[in-house]
Design brief:
Structural class of chain A: alpha+beta
CATH superfamily of the largest domain in chain A: Aldehyde oxidase/xanthine dehydrogenase, molybdopterin binding domain
CATH topology of the largest domain in chain B: Ubiquitin-like (UB roll)
CATH class of the largest domain in chain A: Alpha Beta
Largest sheet of chain A: 7 strands, mixed
Oligomer: heterodimer
Order of helices and strands of chain B: EEEHEEEHHHHH
Shape of chain B: globular
Number of helices of chain A: 18
CATH superfamily of the largest domain in chain B: Beta-grasp domain
Radius of gyration of chain A: 27 Å
Largest interface: A-B, 56 and 53 residues
Structural class of chain B: alpha+beta
Distance between the termini of chain B: 40 Å
CATH architecture of the largest domain in chain B: Roll
Shape of chain A: globular
CATH topology of the largest domain in chain A: Aldehyde Oxidoreductase, domain 4
CATH class of the largest domain in chain B: Alpha Beta
Largest sheet of chain B: 6 strands, mixed
Number of strands of chain A: 30
Number of domains of chain A: 3
Amino acid sequence: MNSIGKSPQRIDLLEKVTGAATYVDDIDFGARLLHAEVVESPHAHALIKSIDTSAAEKVPGVVRVITGKDFPYRFGLYMQDRFIFPTDRVRFVGEQVAAVVARDAKTAKRAAKLVKVVYKELEPVLDLTKALSDELVLVHPDLGNYTRCPWFFPQAGTNIAHWRKTRKGDVEKAFKEADLVFEDTYTVPRYSHCAIEPHVIVGLYDLTGRLTLWSASQSPYTQRNVMAQALAPLGLSHKDIRVVTPYVGGGFGGKAGVSMEIICAALAIMVKGQPVKVRWSRAQEFYNTYQRQGVIARIKLGVKKDGTITGIEHTLHWDAGGYVEYGANVVNAVGLSATGPYRIPNVKIDSVCVYTNLPPSGPYRGFGYSEFHFGLESHMTRVAQKLGIDAVEFRKKNAIREGDTLAYGAKMNPCGMQEAIDRAAKEIGWGKKEVSKDPNKAIGKGFACFWKAPAMPPNAASCAFTKFNEDGSLNITISGMEIGQGLFTVMAQVASEILTVPVEKIRVELPDTDRNPYEWQTVGSHVTWGCGNAVKAAAEEMRGKIFEIVERAHGIRRDSLYLENETVKCRDRADFELPLRDFVINGIQTKHGNFLGGPILGSGMFMPEFTSALSDPETSQGGHPNVHYTVGAAAATVEVDKQTGKMRVLKATLAVDAGKAINPELINSQIVGGVLQGLATVLYEDIRFDHKGKLLNANFTDYKIPTSLDMPVETVPIIIETPQPDGPFGARGVAEHTMIPAAPIIANAIDDALGLRMKTLPITGEKVALALNGIDYENVKGSTMGFCYVGHADAYKFKTSAKR
Amino acid sequence: MKSKSTTSRGIRAAITLKLNGETRRVDVEPNDILLDVLRESLGLKSPKIGCEQGDCGACTVLLDGKSVRACLILAIEVDGHEIATLEGLTADGLTDLQKALLEHNSFQCGFCAPGVVLSATELLNNHPTPTEEEAKEAVSGNLCRCTGYKPIIEAILAAGRKR
């Protein structure tokens, strides 16, 4: 292959290195651009009694003040539970209740402070126990009336937004047959995406009634669709809405779906004819887009003496925040896959999505898998210890294989789980104890496996248009988004492989829903696979047209033709050579002077027709909700200072089964970047809310993400290639996966170094130091919290008052 | 020289600065932030708005050759000084650093790139062949959420080796 498996220079990189790359906030809209500032709720849970906008409206330069009275609509991707502006009730600190649109940003900010909102405070739901108790305070009293997708099961009259139950075999029997049954509780707090570019969107509702949005988004088509649904009462339809997405300064799931963007759409409609910009501050970025939801999870694992797993019971209660229109699907995805990458005959999973009065939850790189892998992979190591079996051998023995029956009844796709385990173990020097020269420091090694499937509706489709230019160069339009992962380069490589046009002669265009074809969303690490299949189909269509026109013009059978070096060649006639540039626009001239053919265009589409989300709600059996899983294994060597608890990652390695590495360097960069993002959730990022639900560290001073000084000493990427039969050239996605095993490899390494088992994230130096002094952090953590359970994790009762 | 005038928006002053080698005059209010003036009044979009409080480094520019955060500086403070942004760096073609960043596929989303390039440029101007620790230190004020920093550090070191 000429282009697949190579690592050319990224095709978007020159723009980025020169400063030419344009992001939404860089587009000039001229002097008429209006600026918006939202008025935010200071309460986690309150009724809105009145909103007085009169003082703000009098400020010179204020164009309009907008409240829920103007837009009493709900919206949402999977469940329409979120408000453009809430009319009667606020559900988290920082929720927008009104917005001021003004000629300049300073005026908007000043006037927003003059909007008077009278609230009646309600008891906030800040504790999962309380949220699920009989004395219910309801976050969404109208839950039963919300429109939702059919595979969600909200329970009206409770705070349960969704409950995914998966049942296979008989776990009770499995535990009876087991030689060892071990159970424990693991806690993972909330996290923030921290893309460096804040959310920003400009909307223009022009004088013809056309709404154009320039949006920092991973999901142009989904944004258009969600907005069209929400704004339908105003008479807008899909064709009236256009979403344009320039480069995005980091997404990680935070810019998927629709969160704050809906506000801009509403404001634009209210100031017809003038563009209006809504740009989130860094603080708003933390509390009013999506957060990664917190979870408390109970794992019960039954094993035979020889290490065979007989059954798993995995119960997860998710603190999903005030709105779960996207986050409920995270809970759903975990409910289907919380076995981890293991063959387990008896499975009982309960993944419960609980409304709380904390910020809305949603997609974040890993989509719930990072959260449950922390507990599961910590547990796997602990069970191996109890059995006296090596932690890597224990995993290998139970590792999932192609054809195994998954928890929901479908079959496992081809995967290189065994190879990934072997190679990660070899790379880290598993079994070889390392000793620090410094007597104050201990070194330990940790290991974990991982898997993840894209969580998509069964009809999530990808499309591509391709066209030649006069010189034989090629333009590809897709609506898969370049969010940094390198999609455009990979799509160029896919087309290049089919058409033999070099990557540097291919442009891939940023999405615009007016001209680029449909893509569901750039999420779930599915675009290399889905969008790649679409681009491949488009390129193949072009190749077919090329051969057809050459056959007609030259009388050479098309099945004897092939492409090489941008030239049509013939297997039967070595002398025949026709460069693409000679005819892909202008056609081929005959001896009569006329031309045959004309501009060669391609279109391609891919939708996974074999998937289905329909299944028995009590067992999840019967459907095929996931297209495939990507698997892998990771390991770390960690040095811990026994006095300060400070940890240093001496080495991290991660092996992932990419199916086929279309661009190995881009996969390596996903691994190196994703591992550090994952390590940050263990070692640095420590979100805190006060006892009234206010986020205390909504900035980079107090919420620490890694700098260049926090890199692991060494990170070694390993690529496994077990082809995905329905992937482009065998490829499947890897991007999210690289973050997933970071927490358990560190937790397991700390245990190996010091014999300390940390069951609550993050694992900061402070916690390790306390633990080394025999102090349980859970007992001294005070009233600030990282998620919606304040008590001692071990005391949490996994009970709900709901019947289901 | 500053010339002052009063408008409906408040007191304004004209400042003069050397921006990417060119002398520019611009009207500012006393509380205008340099970052906003560069982006809105002077049309230079490479310094990015990431946190507006000096944490992320996306707005890094060179003030008299030293990297500073444009979000923490009042525009009026740079009257009579030199400011360099990424747009100016490329005026005579790509620098060795930029070429090395391209060769190492150093960025993903690219939002931190302008700040990283300027911080690393300052480093290479002062220490043409930096050590790995110096390279890490130099860009430690530029947050990158995508890359894990490894390809950035490797590119800086490679550019240094070319000197």
